[in-house]
Amino acid sequence: MRSFFSLLLATPLYLSGQALVPSVITALSSTLNETSGLVVLNGEVWTQLDSGNPNALYRIDPSDGQVLRSVTVSNASNVDWEEITADGQWLYIGDFGNNLGSRTDLRIYRVSLADLLDLATTELLADTIRFTYPLQTDFTPADRANDWDMEAMVAVGDSLFLFSKNWLSGTSYLYALAAEPGDHFASRRDTLDAQGLITGAAYDADNASIVLVGYTNGTYRPFVWGLDAFAGTNFFSGRKERRMLDAGLVQMEAIAVAGSGIVYLTNEWSLFGSARLWQLPVEVGAGPKLEQRSKVALWPSPNDGRFVIEVDRRCLLELFDMEGRRVRDQVLRPGTNHVDFGDLPNGIYVVRTGSGNHVLRMSVVR
After folding, report:
1. One pLDDT digit (tens) per residue for the chain, 366 residues
2. CA dihedral for 366, 203, 130, 195, sign (positive or negative)
3. Rounded to two decimals, what is the model's pTM?
């Protein structure tokens, strides 16, 4: 996968441009009204719910938003689960939501990825990673008026990296701690002027880039941050770009890498609307900024060998298998087009479509 972000300068710089336009794939089952984390594992879409909900992980059908599987983490409690992320061996569940800024029981649960993906599994046992912020000395409750809340996390190497949700300052602190069971200090590494509340994070391992999602405090205007060209795991040290999302007033809670040039997002239910699964196809090229070059929406993925793609201009669609062979092409007309590739084997395919310099690459799963 190529990096999500292509920026003009290599020195640290905050950039802001035209809003990106995500598309709604589907409304989510009412069971998932309080979705707060998202991850794609071997083509499967998984989420979890935040405080007051079951201590369970849910696999989503991205075509209709229904729950395909639920797996209980039997030895864990859901005080305020706010994020899930994974590496090659483990899935990590961040029980570190802290609206009051007063929690002394912050923890991250670790479960076996192989066991989770086993269709026979209905319950899991978790290891526990407990942590504290050594810089915090005042635990007086201050509801949504503190800088000790947390909702975003990625796993990189042998460590976990947390991005705080700072209600007072609108910044985000980068914390690091070992991805091992036991008691740990979360070491503060750096600060990002997030200009809002960070609620989710995803790591693109192929390109060593980070994408963050959040919304503005009080006005619920969603945005994304792209981070790349950083040194090691000093994620705020490289190139940075912030873009608003043209998605209405929604409480975007989670983001995940879904394929080449695509991220999935979820928002939780609110007075502004239902919980939904979104798709954001992002062009990556040599341009000066993160751009959504053509307006393209594709759904569903995964699918049964048929999908719908909507484009705003006449262009050619090319379908490639994972070995880079072109296996199908079709001329698309402005509007809604139907593509049938049900005669091809099950697997992951890459869709290439667009015109001129405006070319998008997306993945579909059959």
Report:
1. 334 443 222 222 333 457 888 889 999 999 999 999 999 999 999 999 999 999 999 999 999 999 999 999 999 999 999 999 999 899 999 999 999 999 999 999 999 999 999 999 999 999 999 999 999 999 999 999 999 999 999 999 999 999 999 999 999 999 999 999 999 999 999 999 999 999 999 998 877 889 999 999 999 999 999 998 899 999 999 999 999 999 988 999 999 998 767 899 999 998 878 999 999 876 433 233 444 545 677 778 778 888 888 887 777 788 888 777 778 888 888 888 889 988 888 888 888 776 443 456 666 777
2. negative
3. 0.76
Report residue 129 as tokens: 């990673």
Q: Tell me the C-alpha to C-alpha distance, in Å, between residue 281 and each of 55, 162, 213.
A: 32, 25, 15
What is the Cβ-side half-sphere exposure of residue 170, based on CA atoms within 13 angstroms? 9
Structural tokens at position 326 = 């072109």
The CA-based angle 107-110-111, given to 5 degrees, is 145
Using alpha carbons, select from 175, 172, 149, 171 the residue that is nearest to residue 161.
175
Q: Coil, helix or strand for 117?
A: helix
Q: How many CB atoms lie within 10 A of CB 145?
A: 11
DSSP symbol at 143: T
The H or E element that residue 116 is part of is helix 113-117
